[in-house]
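Extended Data, panel c. Modelled sequence:
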Amino acid sequence: MATYLYKLGRFAFRRRHFVALLWVALLTLAGVGAATAPPAGNSSFSIPGTEAQRAFDLLEQRFPGMSADGATARVVFKAPEGQKMTDAGNKAAVEKTVKELGSGSEVASVADPYTGKAVSRDGTIAYASVKYKVSGMELEDSSRDALKESAGHARDAGLTVEIGGDALTTAPETGSSEVIGIAIAAVVLVITFGSLIAAGLPLLTAIIGVGIGVSTITALATPLDLGSTTSTLATMIGLAVGIDYALFIVSRYRAELAEGREREEAAGRAVGTAGSAVVFAGLTVVIALVGLSVVNIPMLTKMGVAAAGTVAIAVLIALTMIPALLGYAGRTVKPAGEKSKLLGGGRAAKKAGRPNMGTRWASFVVRRPVAVLLLGVVGLGAAAVPAASLELGLPDDGSQPVSTTQRRAYDLLSDGFGPGFNGPLMVVVDAKGSGDEKAAFAKVGDEIKGLKDVVTVTPPAPNKAGDTAIITVVPKSQPSSATTEDLVHAIRGKSASIASATDAELLVTGATAMNIDVSQKLNDALLPYLALVVGLAFLLLIVVFRSILVPLKAALGFLLSVLAALGAVVAVFQWGWLSGLMNVEQTGPVMSMMPIFMVGVVFGLAMDYEVFLVTRMREAYVHGENPGQAVVTGFRYSARVVTAAAVIMIAVFSGFIGSSEAMIKMIGFGLAIAVFFDAFIVRMAIVPAVLALLGRRAWWLPSWLDRALPNVDVEGEGLKTASDTDGDRELVRA
């Protein structure tokens, strides 16, 4: 592989006009496709295989036009101090608002508070329920605007009005975070390379790659039902790996120049060596992202595949456009150790002197491997302890900042009707096979009334055919509590006895039950997903490193860093440690998607650092250095680059911590701390310590397996022959 990529790098360098024109043409084509494509809506949301989804599907059949999975909104009214909602003036204002709410084209129904018994016992709080024909993810912005405008009219009449429900759910805006991340990346790259031109290449190629990927997603959004949120993960991951991969190749190019090679030769060798690492690092990321399909949540699968496509584009751009741009840059990209006149006076690289920081650190670790290993493992183990108390759930309006109307509506409803009122359960009774439907409905209602943590059970509401009914159950506890989850399981536990007594089927759905089912589905998928991703990557790394122990060490180190990161997330967002510093207003269960999302994203990035760092060690070992020297050599050339890549990623992810969305804040913190643990503790401390302890055994591979594996030559051993044949080992002219 190294020889092929070496030739590709030299070709791209020589034929830079053709390569650059090709990528510009692809960007233009994708841009035109995105611009001419119909506006992307929000993709349909379904959770196949869950009871809540089966209930929604049944309601669509038995209650046509009901839009069981449609968005809902609760417009909550509070009377001025000393007044009640039943006063004539307040009642008139509410009725006018209800009329306005019902005029929208996407509105299915609006329940009047006064006819629907939606006024609190003390008469100070009332609410109107709005049901939409489409889900919250598909709702048009005009419908949301009309909802807010109607609430504003009621406020003008002197009422306190807040809006809750999933109708206000929108994709979080992350543009400012991306800009901050790119700005910090630019600063780090300038410091790393000491050159504005060299620093600009990774940024330029990463932006082009993300532009092609996101434009393609936008162009295909309607036919593939991708939705407007699908590009979020693709943008974040594409930007991350795009900068990383280009950074690795430009860094190796400068190192080759510093060894006296001619520029075209240096470009070829950079792509042949660092490019080989980029290919396999990209494959691990693609495996991790495509593996999200194991969860069997269509929206998550589409996001993973779209992001994987963007990563593949980033790999191709790094292998072809970077050497082409290096050809254009010419002598403005200096050898390693030299800086531009603007940043360093054009001083030449030091031929001899004090070893760099990476060399000094690796030498220390090689001398004290046991102490470093123990300190790293114990430190990460201590950080992972809180993960034993991990509680998973999905956020609701109660986790929103108190400054939002959703949170204020949630609090008003809790005050007026009890905390469980914010998460009612919808019990669907299918009595089509029962001889006495009414008796079956009554039996279910009576069984539920006898359960603990139940406040209200409404009378059965049958469909026109009379064979299916809906019973609404209001729990005592808030939607995200473990008590409410126990109640859902308790109701479902009655299904066997109900079926035995009445031949009717009982199903529990609604937003709260759906959240519980999604959390369970994610929990059940975590181990298979982990086994698939780590297993495939383990096999891939065996091919790359031609070793059993090095890939095993890489996988175990990754698991340790993820557990430590989950422990940190639990400590901050569940226990409340440093919650003031992180501006966490409401502690509670960790988002159920967090573990599997962290595994997928962090695994890909962690393997990037592992492949690039250890490949350089493997290269030194193959070229004759002893194991300890190989570790030091790997750090001499790679530590600075891996550190820069990790700092960039931490900065990008940390930008999301400032989000007002609790979910985005948690994702940003979790990914940032995971990259910190993995890059600076696992890869920079534990990895060299383990390799120093293992010595030559680290690179052991059974002879039968060695013969069976393909020789991909990531370390570039075959480049010696190619280089000698081409006769390009000339020194750079001054």
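Residues 141 and 348 are 58 Å apart (CA to CA). This feature is highlighted in the accompanying rendering.
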